[in-house]
Design goal:
Layout lengths: L11 E4 L6 E4 L3 E10 L2 E6 L2 E6 L2 H6 L5 E11 L2 E7 L2 H11 L6 H8 L4 H9 L3 H4 L7 H11 L7 H4 L13 H8 L4 H9 L7 H10 L1
Antiparallel strand pairs: 1-2, 3-4, 3-6, 4-5, 6-7
Length: about 220
């Protein structure tokens, strides 16, 4: 008989079947105040309890400290780890979980793909078969990008007109401090990346931000 670990009580439940027992996540959404932003994660204060959630680069920039927000949650549960992934929209969570259905794509790799650009641009890249664009995500190689396209090209729900829309040819770098600064100022990921393309990338981040704001 399976027994829950105390720290999992109230969050998870066990189910049993012919294939054995498995864990089913119980947290669908969380609503509270954004208390902190660290790295690529946010801490959401829900009734005095802080939940740490990993988020995409676009969502990280859009979430403001002190603001009340609702995040759709995916629980990644493994033998030695329990992580929460948060999304501002159901659509982004849906694409994240579609990525998880691809062989070899884990939660962090799926989040890296979502962090390459905006949600719409990532979907367009998948629908358009742009493996070069997808493989620019951290930890995603050519073969993994090809599997993503093969498995999801016809499942991302884009109409033909949307597929024909131009999108960024260079992926956004979540580690770019200037890009982070522009996103924090309210720029979308793609607008920030486009603005910085016109600025000398050898300049210090603060100067690149100033130059980008002038364009």
């Amino acid at each position: 008989m399976m027994r829950q670990e105390p720290w999992r009580s109230g969050q998870l439940r066990w189910t049993a079947g012919r294939c054995g027992a498995k864990l089913i996540g119980m947290i669908a959404t969380l609503e509270g105040l954004v208390a902190e932003k660290i790295g690529q994660s946010v801490i959401l204060d829900v009734g005095g309890v802080g939940y740490g959630l990993l988020v995409s680069f676009e969502d990280f920039g859009a979430l403001k400290i002190g603001a009340k927000t609702k995040l759709y949650v995916h629980e990644a549960i493994r033998d030695n780890a329990y992580e929460l992934f948060g999304f501002r929209t159901e659509e982004s969570k849906r694409l994240f979980e579609q990525l998880l259905s691809v062989k070899g794509i884990g939660p962090r790799m799926a989040l890296a793909i979502l962090s390459v650009a905006s949600l719409s641009h990532v979907r367009q890249a998948i629908a358009g078969g742009d493996t070069k664009f997808i493989s620019q995500a951290k930890g995603v190689g050519r073969k993994a990008a090809e599997r993503v396209v093969v498995d999801l090209k016809d499942k991302v729900g884009l109409q033909a007109a949307e597929q024909a829309t131009d999108f960024l040819t260079t992926a956004a770098d979540p580690g770019d401090e200037a890009l982070q600064g522009l996103v924090a100022l309210g720029f979308s990921v793609q607008d920030a990346a486009e603005a910085l393309k016109k600025v000398d990338n050898k300049l210090p981040p603060s100067e690149r931000i100033k130059q980008a704001l002038k364009t």
